[in-house]
Amino acid sequence: MPVDDIDLKILRIMQQDGNLTVSEIAEKVGLSQSPCSRRINQMQQDGIILGKAILLDRKKLGFGSIVLVRIKLTEHGRQSLKVFQEAVLRIPEVQVVQLMLGEFDFNVRVVVRDMDHFQHLLRDKLVMLPGLQEIQSTVLLEEMKYTTALPL
């Protein structure tokens, strides 16, 4: 089902504040609660709304560093990619895994408490990943913008 202007307005409002109730969203959009609720439910069923998440302040929880890890695999067959993906997705510090075209095959974003934590993660988990040929890492100094919102 196509997304119309009202749906886009609902999505913008939900992206800005995920804590709003359906009644509050409906009021901001100019609908009554029932049609607003139906639209939200339909967008969930259609897979447009994938779920809700709580964003946490990583620094306040002791995760002071973000490291971007680029990984090149020795083989690129379907099975080797699947085995690698299954292994990397099991690492709790991994926040993002992206398959790429170019010199490296994967971009992996990890969150760690400090560089000692990263050293242990690298030595005990990352370099042990199946099919690993090469690994490069970059430490982020500052994150000036972080959002999950789409520019609707």
**Main pleated-sheet profile:** 4 strands, antiparallel
Uncertain spans: none
The CA-CA distance between the termini, in Å, is 17 Å
Sheet with the most strands: spatial strand order = 2-3-1-4
Order of helices and strands: HHHEHEEHE
* Count of DSSP strands: 4
Shape: elongated
Task: Specify the number of helices.
Answer: 5
Structural class: alpha+beta
Beta-strand percentage?
Answer: 15-25%
* Average pLDDT level: 96
Helix content: 25-40%
What's the Cα radius of gyration? 20 Å
Report on this structure.
The structure is a single chain. This protein is α+β, with helices and mostly antiparallel strands and 152 residues long. 36% of the residues lie in helices and 20% in strands. The chain contains five helices and four strands. Strands 2-3-1-4 form a four-stranded antiparallel beta sheet. It is elongated. The mean pLDDT is 96.
How would you briefly describe this protein structure?
With 152 residues, this protein is of the alpha+beta class. 36% of the residues lie in helices and 20% in strands.
Summarize the topology.
Elements: H1 5-16, H2 22-29, H3 33-45, E1 65-73, H4 78-89, E2 94-99, E3 106-112, H5 115-124, E4 132-140
Antiparallel strand pairs: 1-3, 1-4, 2-3
What keywords describe this structure?
152 residues, 5 helices, 20% strand, elongated
